[in-house]
Amino acid sequence: TELPAYEYIKISTPKPGVGLITLNRPKALNALSTPLFLELNDALRKLDADKETGAIVITGSERAFAAGADIKEMKDLTFSTAYTTDFIELWSSLSHQIKKPIISAVNGYALGGGCELAMMADILYCSAGATFGQPEIKLGTIPGAGGSQRLTKAIGKSRAMELILTGDNFSGKQAGEWGLAAKVFETAQECLDGAVGQAEKIASYSRLAVKAGKEVVNKSQDLGIREGVEFERRVFHSLFGSKDQKIGMTAFAEKKKPTWSHQ
Ligand code: CO8
Question: How far is the centre of ligand 1, averaged over its atoms, from the C-alpha of 3 (Å)?
Fold first, then answer.
């Protein structure tokens, strides 16, 4: 894919099928300004549409995944501008419009909007020494990009309430123990390599099945158990209409490796 040269992010393909987005605004610890988010959304949309890409990894630097929304940009924002421009709406495309799996590989600071961005990903990996937190309370505000909802779902009400009302940080090690992170790695490099490795694995499967898998798991966040299970079954039934279900099960029966058609 031809991707434009971006100013605040870098794009690469470290392994076949893996689109790696590296937030690259080092002077501001990857603070998530509007220009950065516009680039991130543009890259995500292009990777989502790209035939070669099967999974996406978002990472930052060793020092910072992202130190939050850009405080200097928000400082003078008024209610009426925030409301009329739907400030933050920009962020929702990541969690609602991108159909390919996104893994966040979190090293260093993931604070405020940075923590929220990490939690918007489908799978969160981090290094033990990563620093997470929702420090908005210290700035006279609250999380605005889903933090109060996603953190609470992930780690429970009492812990999330404590973190959001005190603004206390928590470590990558704790994120793993509490179930916010799917895996915790020793070093930043291991975290990135681990994320890319799992993305490569996901990208090696049927794109169709992967898309359906992401869709049904995400539905569990919105639906009750009964509706969720029924939804899953419908999608499961529908996959009997795909070529890849035939390819996968025939290959198993014939003791061969499947070659996916992605159809
Ligand atoms: N916004 C803007 N600039 C930032 C941010 C930020 N969030 N974080 C760091 N920077 C800048 C600093 O201002 C500094 O710039 P300069 O060199 O020009 O002074 C540079 O990055 C380096 O930072 P520090 O010198 O502070 O580095 P330290 O190692 O001393 O400290 C910290 C690192 C602890 C991460 C510290 O920078 C810090 O506390 N940052 C702010 C963390 C924070 O409060 N984040 C939450 C922001 S609010 C938010 O995300 C709300 C989300 C709501 C929804 C989304 C809305 C868009």
Answer: 29
- The ipTM estimated for the assembled molecules is 0.95
Q: Residue 108: pLDDT above 90?
A: yes
DSSP letters along the chain, please? Answer: ---PPPSSEEEE-SSTTEEEEEE--GGGTT-B-HHHHHHHHHHHHHHHH-SS--EEEEE--SSEEE--B-HHHHTT--HHHHHHTTTTGGGHHHHHT--S-EEEEE-SEEETHHHHHHHHSSEEEEETT-EEE-GGGGGT----SSHHHHHHHHH-HHHHHHHHHH--EEEHHHHHHTTSSSEEESSHHHHHHHHHHHHHHHHTS-HHHHHHHHHHHHHTTTS-HHHHHHHHHHHHHHGGGSHHHHHHHHHHHTT--------
72 touches ligand 1 (CB under 6 Å) = yes
Tens of pLDDT, residue by residue over 213-232, are 999 999 998 999 999 999 99
Report whether residue 71 contacts ligand 1, using a CB cutoff of 6 Å: yes
What domains does the chain contain, in order, with CATH numbers?
A: 9-203 (3.90.226.10), 207-253 (1.10.12)
